[in-house]
Write a structure and sequence with these properties.
alpha/beta, seven-stranded mixed beta sheet, five-stranded mixed beta sheet, 18% strand
């Protein structure tokens, strides 16, 4: 085991996959000598050469179109789009080409491409560099969506994404890049579509993912002071998402709260609440709830940005209200 950062875990996973499979390569802006915005490609061009770690012009649609063609031709490209906000510049290629090619061609081709789109706030990066767009990609049939919250998951899930035969939108969180954790460097790929129970509890199920996990664990710890036992479920993969783990947890606790950093309106939390309500209505002890950001551009000013965050105190307040019912 090694104590490494979230960014180093991703770099290690890509390096190991490139050593294992010569069809794996990466392309994007500033991933060569610069090594990516957080060092997640550091030294890879020096080791594998410019033909496998490819610096590209600033044109997300060109990057994405090139990768899709290369994937259909038998390689396994890893695309770096720097920030999820810029993924929108390549939306046509992702939605109408990568996600549809297998279906439109009767399964004769696959598009094994990983599309790295870092999400979330990063202290003052403002409205065009702070969005959490996971719900938009979850809505598109044909795409797998992954959101790792720990260094170990960023290692195992990136390996799994690279080995997937379907296009994977891989959403690391920018504020996690420097977080550290134990990583088994020899570990193989994680299982896509499998959630993790990060903390066991009996009074309420708190479902979350990505950068929101830390706040939820802090909230669960704080809730203990009020005699409340909170179970924290980290989805890890958003599509497919692990219904069995969530349903089993809610069936035991009788309460569901979903917390995410994305905008509440139209967020993936609404989908989870709807599914649980449809399938477990009789088991619920109070109405399910969701917490997310307000429907506003993320402000540059940090005091205002803080108002958009789902902080632990806000989660604890909601948990206490829900547990006071029934």
């Amino acid at each position: 085991m090694a104590l490494i950062t979230y960014a180093q875990a991703a770099q290690l996973a890509l390096k190991q996959e490139m050593l294992r499979d010569p069809r794996v390569w990466a392309l994007g802006e500033d991933i060569g000598p610069e090594g990516g915005v957080a060092g997640q490609y550091l030294d890879l061009q020096r080791e594998f050469g410019r033909h496998r770690i490819v610096d590209t012009p600033i044109s997300e649609s060109t990057i994405m179109g090139s990768a899709i063609g290369a994937a259909i031709c038998g390689t396994r490209p890893v695309v770096e789009l720097r920030y999820a906000d810029f993924g929108l510049c390549a939306a046509d290629e992702i939605v109408n080409q990568a996600a549809k090619a297998r279906y439109m061609l009767g399964g004769q081709v696959r598009v094994p491409v990983v599309i790295r789109q870092p999400i979330g706030f990063r202290e003052g990066m403002a409205a065009q560099h702070s969005q959490s767009t996971e719900a938009w990609w979850i809505h598109i049939p044909g795409l797998v969506v992954v959101a790792p919250a720990t260094p170990a998951d960023n290692h195992g899930l990136l390996k799994a994404a690279i080995r997937s035969d379907d296009p994977v939108v891989y959403m690391e969180h920018k504020e996690l890049w420097t977080s550290t954790g134990e990583v088994d460097e020899s570990a193989g790929p994680a299982v896509l579509g499998k959630a993790a129970i990060r903390r066991a509890g009996s009074d309420l199920t708190l479902v979350t993912w990505s950068g929101q996990l830390g706040d939820c664990l802090l909230a669960a710890e704080a809730a203990q002071a009020y005699g409340l036992s909170i179970e924290v479920v980290d989805l890890r993969t958003l599509w497919p998402w692990d219904r069995d783990t969530v349903f089993d947890s809610v069936a035991r606790t009788g309460r569901l709260l979903v917390a995410h950093q994305a905008v509440t309106v139209g967020g993936f939390g609404a989908e989870i609440v709807a599914e649980v309500t449809e399938h477990l209505f009789a088991a619920l002890r109070c109405p399910p709830r969701r917490l997310g950001a307000p429907r506003t551009p993320v402000p540059y000013a940090q005091p205002l940005e803080a108002l958009c965050r789902v902080a632990p105190a806000r989660i604890v307040s909601c948990v206490r209200q829900m547990c006071a019912q029934a």
